[in-house]
Structures are given as C-alpha cells and as structure tokens.
UniProtKB/TrEMBL annotation:
Similarity comment: family membership: Belongs to the ABC-4 integral membrane protein family. FtsX subfamily.
Top-rank taxon, per record: Bacteria
Transmembrane segments: 21-46, 170-190, 223-245, 265-287
Keyword annotations: Cell cycle, Cell division, Cell membrane, Membrane, Transmembrane, Transmembrane helix
Entry-linked Gene3D superfamilies: 3.30.70.3040
Record protein name field: Cell division protein FtsX
Subcellular location field: Cell membrane
InterPro entries in the cross-refs: ABC3_permease_C (IPR003838), FtsX (IPR004513), FtsX_ECD (IPR040690), FtsX_firmicutes-type (IPR058204)
Positions of the FtsX extracellular domain: 59-148
Topology of this chain in the membrane: Multi-pass membrane protein
UniProt GO cellular component terms: plasma membrane
Signal sequence coordinates: none
Positions of the ABC3 transporter permease C-terminal domain: 173-290
Length: 295
C-alpha cells in the first residue's frame, strides 16, 4: 500500500465515523465503558501490588544477640551475617533502643525497666536481598555463635508471601479476562456498524476492490473508535485517582505505606488505555470484517 492510498483510507475512515452517527456513538460508548473498567482495574491492581510489595519487603530477620556478648564478639557476628549471600543490609539496635521502641508501642509502664533491669537483647536487624530469602537467612543466622534466636515472623511471613503471590496471579488473570471480554464486546458492537453497511461492501466487491482495499478503512475506523473511546475513561480515571490519592494518602501515611503517586503513573495508565483502545478497536473491526470478505 502506497502513502497516497493509506492517506485516502485514513481520511475515509475518519469521515465514516461522522456519516454513521448513532452507530458510531454506540461503538464509542462500548469502548469507553470497557476501557473505564480496564483503567480502574489496572489502577487498583497496580496499587495493591505496590503496597503488597512494600509489606513483603518490610519482613526482616531480627537476630537477638546473647546477653553478655562483648563488642568484639558482636562485630564477629556482624561479619558472619554479612558473608551470607542472601543478606542485603544489617542494622544494629541496642537493647536501650529496643526498650525505647517498646515504650513507644506499648506504653509508659515499660519505663520501669532501665539499665541492668532491661530484659531485652541487643539486636541485628537483617534484611534479605529478596523477601522470600528471609526464611533461609533466619535459619542460617540461628545456627551462628553468639545468637540467642532469630525471628522473622514464622508462619505469618510465609502466609504473607503466599498472599502476595496470589494477588499478582489473580490480578494478571482478571486483567487478561477483562481484555478478552473487551475484544468480544467491541468487535460485536463494531460488527453492528458494519452490518448496516453491507451494501456498501457488496458494491465495492462488485467493482473489483481487493479485500485489503475494503478492509483497511474499517480497520482504521476501528482504531479511531478505540482512540476517541479512550478519552472519557482517561479523564475519569485521572481525576478520580487524584481525588482518591489525596484522601487515602493521609490515612495510609501513619502506616508507612503509600499509593503510587500520580504524574508518571497516570501518564503510563493513559498511554496504556490509548494503546489498548486502538489495538482492540482495530482488532475488533478486522475480526468483524472476515465474514463479509469471504468469497
């Protein structure tokens, strides 16, 4: 196809949208509703995945040091922990700091413990390179000299890793299912617009037009439908997300977790909705045209 022919198809497909009036409105509405669902689902799933990953990454190994261990022995233990391939970082927390954290979390009644009366241990807070390596690091650390015990959340941590994996798996599955439904709905809607123009297609075939020459204006028309149908969902998703971000960010701030910030995130969602709209619109038109081009 040369550039002049493609330009003609492009202009003709755009004019066809205006000529078909209410049929175009119906197709645009189907695209808009479908893409709105896709946009909302993607925004929710991406934020759930982000918060789940933050929670997952917060799982750390607390290596409690034996009471009476000297500073030299503590340094030896730190070096041994650092040698583990799975270890990303090590932070030291003295029993005095541990007591301050307990008082901050559970109340001032714990202030009666101080100095030699402090029952807590000095701690190395160890973070694994990958969250799922946390269990392995804890088991290795517990076998080391000068270690009282190594805590990582036990069954709760394993359950958390499983929940995060399920969220990601189900999220991908639901997204693919919704996209399949989108192709089905949009192709059926576009098929109705093509049915109303079957006489036009028949005339083109009678005068010797090739299948490609007949198909391309409809495919481009479907792409236009997907592009214009994405405008309203983009506006709703963008304004809705900014509004919810302002409300939820304040309540989430106290937990230490945050939603994906607007800006780059919304630009990515917008471009994705436009791309999905164009592809689904063109694909829907292409699939709908097959029955009319059979000899």
């Amino acid at each position: 196809m040369n550039s002049l022919t493609f330009k003609r198809h492009l202009i003709e497909s755009f004019k066809s949208l205006k000529r078909n009036g209410w049929m175009t409105v119906a197709a645009l509405s189907a695209v808009a509703v479908t893409l709105l669902l896709v946009g909302v689902l993607l925004s929710v799933l991406m934020n759930i995945n982000k918060i789940a990953s933050d929670i997952e990454n917060d799982v750390q190994v607390r290596v409690l040091i034996n009471r009476g261990t000297s500073k030299k022995q503590e340094n030896t233990l730190r070096q041994n922990l650092a040698k583990l391939d799975e270890v990303k970082s090590i932070r030291y927390s003295s029993k005095k700091q541990e007591l301050k954290d307990v008082i901050g979390s559970y109340g001032k009644e714990f202030k009666l413990f101080s100095g030699d009366d402090n029952p807590l241990n000095d701690v190395f807070v160890v973070k694994a390179k990958k969250p799922k390596q946390t269990v392995k690091v804890a088991k290795q650390a517990e076998k080391m000299k000068y270690v009282y015990t190594a805590k990582y959340g036990g069954a709760s941590a394993k359950k958390l890793f499983k929940i995060v994996d399920n969220i990601r798996t189900w999220g991908i599955g639901i997204s693919l299912l919704l996209l399949f439904v989108a192709v089905f709905l949009i192709s059926n809607t576009i098929r109705i617009t093509i049915l109303s123009r079957k006489d036009e297609i028949g005339i083109m075939r009678l005068v010797g037009a090739t299948n490609g020459f007949i198909r391309w204006p409809f495919i481009l028309e479907g792409a236009w439908t997907g592009l214009f149908g994405a405008i309203v969902p983009i506006i709703i998703v963008d304004f809705g997300y900014v509004w919810l971000y302002r409300i939820l960010s304040a309540s989430l701030a106290s937990t230490g977790y945050h939603l994906l910030t607007p800006g780059t995130f919304l630009i990515q969602i917008d471009l994705l909705l436009i791309l999905i709209g164009i592809i689904i619109g063109a694909l829907g038109s292409g699939l709908s045209m097959r029955r009319f081009l059979k000899i």
